[in-house]
Each structure stands twice: as C-alpha cells, then as structure tokens.
Amino acid sequence: MSSFLNSIGRLRGGPKRSPVHSPSTNQQGYFDPLPSPGAEFTGGPPSPNGQKPLYLCQPFVKAALVKGSFKTIVAPPKYVDVNEWVAVNLFDFYHNLNHFYGALTDFCTLQNCPSMSAGPTLNFLWPDQNQRMVSLPAPTYIDFVMSWLQKLLDDENVFPTKSGREFPNSFAYTAKHIYKHLFRIFAHIYHAHFEQILHLSVEAHFNSLFAHFLAFGKEFDLLAMKDLMTPEGMGQGVAGLSDKWREMGILEV
Ligand SMILES: [Zn+2]
Question: What is the CA(176)–ligand 1 centre distance, in A?
C-alpha cells in the first residue's frame, strides 16, 4: 500500500502547472465555484429539426470505442482505497483534458467563444464578486476552472499524498464538484470545437477519454447529467452523445 501511495505522491508531485495550459489566478475577483455555479437557457428549447452535431454522426460517434471495455477500467484495483482511486482518476482526467484543451486554445478565444456554451441554447455561468451568476467568455471560464482545480489538487488537506494522511470527510462532495466542472469543459469542447478535434485527428482519443470519464462518473456516482437538461427536461449537447453510447452498448445503461 505504501508503495502505491508513494507512486501517487510522485505522480501528483509532477509539474505544478501543465506545460500546455497556464491558468491565471482569480485576480479579477471572481469567486471560487463553490457551492455551485449556474446555467442559463436562452431562446427556449432547441429546435428538434436542428442540424445534428458532428459528434453524433457516423463514423465519429463510435471512433475508437470498443463495446464493454469501460466497466473493467473503472473498477478499483484490489486493496486500493476508493478515495485514493477516485483521487488518482480525477488527477488523470484533469491532466488529460488540460492537454486536449491546450491544443484548442488558438480556437477557443474571446472572439470565437464569447460565452461558455455547451448546446444550441445552453450557457454555463460563473459567480462574480457579488455572487451573481454571470456569463463569461469560454476561455476565461475554463481558465478559472483550471486554476481552481490546480490549486485544489495541490492542496494536501484536500488531496493527501503523504502516507498515513486521511482524506477529509468532505472528499466525496469535493470530488463531485470537480466532476461537474470537468464535465462542463468536455461539454463545451464537444459543442464548440469538435470540428477542430477532427482536424487534429484526435477524435478517437477524445471520445475514449470522455467515455471513460462518463463510465467512471457513473460507477462512483460523481456525474450529474441534469446540468445539460433544459427546464423542459430536454437534454442538450453531449447529453445526446451519452444516450447514444448507451444505446450502442458502449456504456452501461
Ligand atoms: Zn471555446
């Protein structure tokens, strides 16, 4: 066990900042995203006749996805504490997503993405210094999330790496919260940047990462799809992708 902990310590003791993404700090006075930032739906429910997003089209919808392969990789190895397992996976999801986003920063600009969109009429909001929910450009929003997350992952009180230290009782809550934010970034990338993902020929890797993320989130009850549901109960953006993968048997129902 101690060698496992040590290896996590080494893992997490890696670069303090990702080489591809250098988030700024929250200098502008925006609050950390606790307890929960909001979402807004504009212009009513999306038209059912609207054009199907590319990521739902063949062959992209099933690029590199193998039926039934995700259940086994999300299960914790024998004798490993569940909190440790969730922590290591959160760390990996954060870094992998950060790398993908790093390749998209030329496209995810203030001009191209003036809001944190994740569906035809869905924007995610962020609390300002008065705790009012405001719309921010996607790169600013994502920068805030990544900075907040990096700080959290480096915090020994939240993610203990030293042998003998316990996870705090609030860890499950924190993990859920982190998951929500990573999910929003996935949702924005699929909605706004899937064409660039195709251009970079990384759709197979990106689909695999997201399917792994969904399967892991379901296994450990970290995922809240309701973020993508309109008040009328219609799913937007990647909600459709998750449904599709369940239909195809790639993810468990
Ligand atoms: Zn963007």
Answer: 23
- Compute CA distances 118 → 53, 95, 130, whole Å: 12, 21, 25
Helix ranges (H only) for the chain are 2-12, 70-74, 82-104, 138-153, 171-199, 203-219, 239-247
193 annotated as belonging to a binding site for a ligand = yes
Q: What is the pLDDT of residue 64?
A: 64
188 labeled part of a ligand binding site:
yes
Q: How far is the CA of 193 from the centre of ligand 1 (A)?
A: 6
Evaluate if residue 53 carries a pLDDT over 70: yes
Q: Which pLDDT band, with edges at 50, 70 and 90, does 90 fall under? A: very high
Q: Can you tell me the distance from the alpha carbon of 136 to that of 123, in angstroms, rounded to the nearest whole number?
A: 9
Rounded to whole angstroms, what are the CA distances from 124 to 70, 135, 184, 204? 28, 7, 8, 26
Instruction: Kindly give the distance from the C-alpha atom of residue 222 to the centroid of ligand 1, in angstroms, as a whole number.
Output: 24
**238 alpha carbon – ligand 1 mean position (Å):** 15
112: CA distance to ligand 1 center in Å? 7
- Residue 32 to residue 25: CA distance in whole angstroms: 11
Max mean pLDDT range (30-44, 135-149, 236-250): 135-149
Name the least confident of 64-68, 145-149, 153-157, 183-187. 64-68
